[in-house]
């Protein structure tokens, strides 16, 4: 027993204890799905790619390790072996001649992002076109911040044939053009007069290679269209129309390195939802930069006599209380500015050393006059007005010195 234990310890030391757990390395759970494994690989391989970390040896090691972890965990058999026997088991399995070829980490990278496995600025690699999409979210999400997801359909490298377009992984040199992709044709312009014309080879379409057994999934085109889901982190106070860049997540092709996916974040039209948090007054706030705007309707009595309170529910459900004491008059269309009840200011726009700040909420008061009144009520109001009109009333026209009839204009021209 002791001998066996010592042997085991010896083996572990020989293999190097530095080998990090594959799951930890990819930042995923033990029961991660294939999709999650792929997602983790995509994120980490871009982060640690040597082209993005020139001269950083530890990033390069990580890049290689991430590729290794991916190749083990994405393969059902290898994953089972790893789960049971760890790095040890994988090493033995590889010695035993695994049927699956071990990929060069740059090769693997190119199967995900196209091109030769390097970024544009590195080896003069062409970068594909960027892709732009619009994602609209309610104002509430801009206020509270939110983590959500969106899905886009894009062109992806066919994973069945790993971008070769061939069922058996074999491609042959085109026998018509001899791999040049072009053919020289002689055209007779007139008797004895010829012209040489270069045309694209129609057998291989200019690729110089043909495929005898095309891949059954992509039919030889090397790419497929498929939906891909991305995480979207809406940060508190992000401005409308902000552009969020997902590096190298646009259309893929074996001929180029995928360009960037750019998300334009916009605001949906306000609409009442079914749930309480979708039915706050805030749902209908209007936003301009860091400020919010709201129209509050008050009655004639409230505007004139005061003595009222209002609870306005904000975008996160908290209450902004507005009130006036008896005798505090509000003129129609008055705007009250409530400081710090506007939008949170986006962290990128905050001054140094400030953690949090808010804009203002502008409340415009709209006074609504009743157009119907009970007869008895009308009578009472009328008599009050009459009483005070007789006592203190003034005729404005007289006060302002206005004439009782029209004023006649002088005719003819005045001399200057
Ligand atoms: Zn294919
Ligand atoms: Zn050809």
UniProtKB/TrEMBL annotation:
<dbReference type="Pfam" id="PF00684">
    <property type="entry name" value="DnaJ_CXXCXGXG"/>
</dbReference>
<feature type="domain" description="CR-type">
    <location>
        <begin position="145"/>
        <end position="227"/>
    </location>
</feature>
<keyword id="KW-0863">Zinc-finger</keyword>
<dbReference type="GO" id="GO:0006457">
    <property type="term" value="P:protein folding"/>
</dbReference>
<keyword id="KW-0732">Signal</keyword>
<dbReference type="GO" id="GO:0008270">
    <property type="term" value="F:zinc ion binding"/>
</dbReference>
<keyword id="KW-0479">Metal-binding</keyword>
<feature type="signal peptide">
    <location>
        <begin position="1"/>
        <end position="18"/>
    </location>
</feature>
<keyword id="KW-0862">Zinc</keyword>
<dbReference type="InterPro" id="IPR001305">
    <property type="entry name" value="HSP_DnaJ_Cys-rich_dom"/>
</dbReference>
<dbReference type="InterPro" id="IPR002939">
    <property type="entry name" value="DnaJ_C"/>
</dbReference>
<feature type="region of interest" description="Disordered">
    <location>
        <begin position="396"/>
        <end position="416"/>
    </location>
</feature>
<keyword id="KW-0143">Chaperone</keyword>
<dbReference type="InterPro" id="IPR001623">
    <property type="entry name" value="DnaJ_domain"/>
</dbReference>
<dbReference type="InterPro" id="IPR018253">
    <property type="entry name" value="DnaJ_domain_CS"/>
</dbReference>
<dbReference type="GO" id="GO:0030544">
    <property type="term" value="F:Hsp70 protein binding"/>
</dbReference>
<dbReference type="Pfam" id="PF01556">
    <property type="entry name" value="DnaJ_C"/>
</dbReference>
<dbReference type="InterPro" id="IPR044713">
    <property type="entry name" value="DNJA1/2-like"/>
</dbReference>
<dbReference type="InterPro" id="IPR008971">
    <property type="entry name" value="HSP40/DnaJ_pept-bd"/>
</dbReference>
<feature type="domain" description="J">
    <location>
        <begin position="21"/>
        <end position="86"/>
    </location>
</feature>
<dbReference type="InterPro" id="IPR036410">
    <property type="entry name" value="HSP_DnaJ_Cys-rich_dom_sf"/>
</dbReference>
<dbReference type="GO" id="GO:0051082">
    <property type="term" value="F:unfolded protein binding"/>
</dbReference>
<dbReference type="Pfam" id="PF00226">
    <property type="entry name" value="DnaJ"/>
</dbReference>
<feature type="zinc finger region" description="CR-type">
    <location>
        <begin position="145"/>
        <end position="227"/>
    </location>
</feature>
<keyword id="KW-0677">Repeat</keyword>
<dbReference type="InterPro" id="IPR036869">
    <property type="entry name" value="J_dom_sf"/>
</dbReference>
<protein>
    <submittedName>
        <fullName>DnaJ protein-like protein</fullName>
    </submittedName>
</protein>
